[in-house]
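Technical note accompanying the year-one report. For the benefit of new consortium partners, we illustrate the data format agreed upon in the data management plan: each record pairs a sequence with a structure-token string. No post-processing was applied to the example shown here.
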Amino acid sequence: MKIFKFLFILVFLCPFFHSAQVAVKWTKEVPTAILWQEVTSLGNLIVSSREELIGMDAETGEIIWSKRAHGNLDRAAFEELPNSPFFTVSGNNTLHLFDQFSGNEVFNSANAGLKEIASYFLLYNSNSILVAGTGFNAEPLLVSVHMSNGSLNWSIEEKFGSIININELDNQELLIVTLFNNYKVNATTGTIIWKNTNSKDNAQLDNLSGFGALIKEAAENLVQVMDFQLNYYQPQEGDVFYLGSQQEGQTGVTTTTGTPKIKYTSKYNAYNSTDGSLIWDTPLEVKGALSQVSFLDKGLLVLPDDGNRTKINLFDYQTQEGLWGKKGRGIKIKGGIYDYLDSGDGMLLVSRTDNKDFLNFLDTDAGVITFENPVKVSGTVVGIVPLSNSILYITTASMNILDPATGTLKWRKSIQTSPNLTAEHEGKIYAFDYNSGGIKVVDKATEELSDLSLEYVQFKGKESPRALEVMTDGIFLHSDQNVAKFNFDGTLNFQEYYEAPKEAGWKRALLYAESVRAAYIGAASYYVSGSIAAEEADIRAKDAAAGEMASQIGNAYGALGNAASSYAMEGFRRANARLKATTEGRDFMFIMSKKDKNVVLLKVSKNTGKVEGEIDLGKDREPMYAVDDITGQVYYQTSSTGVTSYLVN
């Protein structure tokens, strides 16, 4: 029945495909029934069938590799690893790590002697995978596996406990930070060069013998079930690293809800990375929860989150002496700091109280806040654009220009927008304004604000615009089902609406594909995290499963650039090619709609707003399709064992 349906679709659509330049790229059969398929963030097609896990060539449809041992694999057992060319398969108390290009298994926890896995780390510079867990003899075990073939480099029976961070040093050494100890390990042999407790309190636990061990075990167990804060900080230069820990205590109850008031204290320790020794006799202690630190020439800048009681300070690297404020006690600031943005001549500090966000400007040379009063903003700040004498900032909900000398805003009313609804082009920033329903234009040189569009845009289906793109002939706006375009003179070129299918499940694969594309586009923007976070939140609101997949993508190429291993370089090459493809833009977008009683994937022109092609996905309530929103390739399961690739370009 499925084959008949597919032949009918081809007969019906072939003339249409030809005229619309939408073509079948290839059609292939796999040996057994297909369970699911997915396109990875690097563009590889993975297919799970009854008897095999399969990697297919996206260009030809040929099977590149297959794994019979992982046939009938549930989708939940598969996970793409962000910032890597790998994916994991879990099952039968074993973790398998595969290269998605070749299908090579580069790690098998059982073969490595591990019964249980606590954590693992991809170390590209040393071309290895470091895995911590428990061996089959119930003893703690740390193993290093060669990334190319999965062979064992070395193993250590050392009770590392919870590993906080692993840093690859330049001389084939690893700095391993754990809950109680710090280690330096030879990356080639696994020899422990030194081991030191990371605080004097922990050293005292070692002196308590069995009782101290019980306390440590209890702490390790507690870490597994609570939100424990232990942060690692490493300056770009020098042989010092820092650990920040957070402690909390109760100080009465709130008057409105009767809930306990929590008071946080943060402690920082400094260590010499050459031998692991403590640099300070006692930790540096500040009030407030762990948040941000910055390494300035004169000292360590600590920016805590202590609500309305927050104080920031610069501390001498050697003596811990406070260098700012009256008697070195720091500078008061409104709200707890959750982020900062370096503008070159100072820092834009971002803080919040229970329900409000604020901006302050810190002169790091003078150690003073330059604003007489903090600037209240709507939304969470995600990026800044330095202008000649001011700063344009954008939040998840608004945009304005800030004078860092006076703390005043350029515009009395901020533009109500979001990162995905702004774009920079030829010295101008274009932004859709929710308040006016039109497009605003900011000239970066003059800081003048003007209206581009003269017409109010109101999308159908209770949708609002969610993305803006500057094209050669105008400004393109779209939501899931609506498209519109303005000419540069402000006139409306077109506006179209395509009705959505009723079944939410139809959109899942398309939403996932859009999130991959958004990650690449965000990587090239001047407010990277904001673009990605906004896209992820938008997708999660529409489909929780697609949102969860989007959250795993991350910055698709960020960690690969300086890597030495062949795996990392291939991933970096592919990711950069896909990044370039997104920056070059394209003149169409995908829209999921319905036609008669069938669901169709439409190719909609950004130049005209009209449909240039469609792929009929039938009436199935659970469609088997995947989309590569970067190459424009669509993979549709047209029979129980058949996959057809459509190239939409």
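Partners are asked to follow this layout when depositing records. The domain at 104-233 is CATH 2.40.10.480 (Thrombin, subunit H).
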